[in-house]
């Protein structure tokens, strides 16, 4: 299962990107507002995307859907629990920032939701009925990992700290609180960290953990 990919953009597609990771190019679908942000990246920049992997009997060809943060991916996974809204419909519907959509759900703003791509009034009412009361964390912190209770460890390091937090917790088994402290200490020791790789190296340098 593919959960995260880092690489460089080879080309843009109408609904996503072709991302080169190592020697493999991955076709990744993106929500339109995420795709718009990606267009500001250069071909030399390395970017990381959290991946939702979709494959079923009705959709035998694997589909990779990319997100910039774990919170955006979690919102997507919550959104597709609504009846009749599958992953492919959802990726088209989420054409506005997650925090805005979450706020509309909490306000029961059916009119706003009806203007999302492919979402009419009936689907909007289903979304409100299913998700109202569950969206507050996405309204207040759509771009920060939920486990950073005080926000990202250091201002300006969102994209650096998030993938490393995921590695520490999900792959290496560190408790969330411990992972937060490890990241904060590393960023405090080294103010020049600009990539996830540098952050990871700093965490484990000279017993930094």
Describe what is shown at a glance.
Residues 141-157 have low confidence and may be disordered. The chain has 10 helices and 5 strands.
Question: What are the key terms here?
Answer:
17% strand, 3 domains, five-stranded mixed β-barrel, 10 helices, 209 residues, 5 strands, single chain, OB fold (Dihydrolipoamide Acetyltransferase, E2P), alpha+beta, DNA polymerase, domain 1
The strands making up the biggest β-sheet line up spatially as 1-2-3-5-4
- The CATH homologous superfamily of the largest domain is termed Nucleic acid-binding proteins
In the CATH hierarchy, the architecture of the largest domain is Beta Barrel
Sheet-strand content, in percent, reads 15-25%
Shape designation: globular
- Tell me the major beta sheet: 5 strands, mixed, barrel
CATH topology of the largest domain: OB fold (Dihydrolipoamide Acetyltransferase, E2P)
Helix content: 40-55%
- Please report the distance between the alpha carbons of the first and last residues: 28 Å
What is the count of DSSP helices, taking H or I runs of 4+ residues? 10
Number of domains: 3
Mean of the pLDDT scores? 84
| CATH class group of the largest domain | Mainly Beta
Q: Find the structural class using helix and strand composition.
A: alpha+beta
Radius of gyration computed on alpha carbons:
18 Å
SSE string = EEEHEEHHHHHHHHH
